[in-house]
């Protein structure tokens, strides 16, 4: 009796990396769509991927995807080896969800006005990305969980 909250919280150690992996998938799709579009859309006689500002946005999107994917893998590996992964699950969930939102937004930016056209998938990715920062605990809750571990990880 009285163990319900603890059981529910332990379940998040399993579900948060799953949510994070979905967010990584969305972030990857936004990146893929943006790269394809940037290779075919031309301004000033050249593909926009050759413009420094666009190429830097694509690089930033790539960095986010790879970092988020690595955190998902780390959190699931720790759980798979029988250890408590609350700390890493929260990092993976927070990072991945925010990368998904950022990548979807950057993809819309790269598409320009076409980014809000329902004929392109980035419009839907943009709308769908926000939910990842909300369910299984908001990004603010993830930061709170992460911060609770810091005093024991970095004792005075």
TrEMBL record:
Cofactor(s) required, per the database record: FAD
Gene3D superfamilies recorded: Butyryl-CoA Dehydrogenase, subunit A, domain 3
Example GO molecular function: acyl-CoA dehydrogenase activity
Domain of life: Eukaryota
Coiled-coil regions listed in the entry: none
Keyword Chloroplast recorded: no
PROSITE patterns from the UniProt entry: ACYL_COA_DH_2
Residue ranges of domain Acyl-CoA dehydrogenase/oxidase C-terminal in the record: 2-149
Alphabetical keyword list: FAD, Flavoprotein, Oxidoreductase
Pfam family, one: Acyl-CoA_dh_1
Annotated family: Belongs to the acyl-CoA dehydrogenase family.
Record's protein name: Acyl-CoA dehydrogenase/oxidase C-terminal domain-containing protein
Organism of derivation: Puccinia graminis f. sp. tritici
């Amino acid at each position: 009796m009285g163990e319900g909250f603890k059981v529910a919280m332990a379940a998040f150690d399993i579900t948060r990396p799953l949510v994070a992996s979905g967010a990584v998938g969305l972030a990857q799709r936004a990146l893929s769509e943006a790269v394809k579009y940037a290779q075919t859309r031309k301004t000033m006689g050249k593909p926009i991927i050759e413009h420094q500002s666009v190429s830097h946005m694509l690089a930033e999107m790539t960095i986010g995807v790879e970092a988020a994917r690595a955190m998902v893998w780390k959190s699931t590996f720790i759980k798979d080896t029988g250890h408590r992964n609350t700390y890493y699950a929260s990092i993976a969930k927070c990072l991945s969800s925010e990368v998904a939102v950022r990548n979807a937004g950057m993809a819309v930016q790269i598409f320009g006005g076409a980014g809000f056209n329902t004929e392109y998938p980035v419009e839907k990715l943009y709308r769908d990305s926000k939910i990842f920062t909300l369910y299984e605990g908001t990004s603010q809750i993830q930061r709170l969980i992460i911060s609770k571990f810091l005093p024991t990880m970095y004792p005075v």
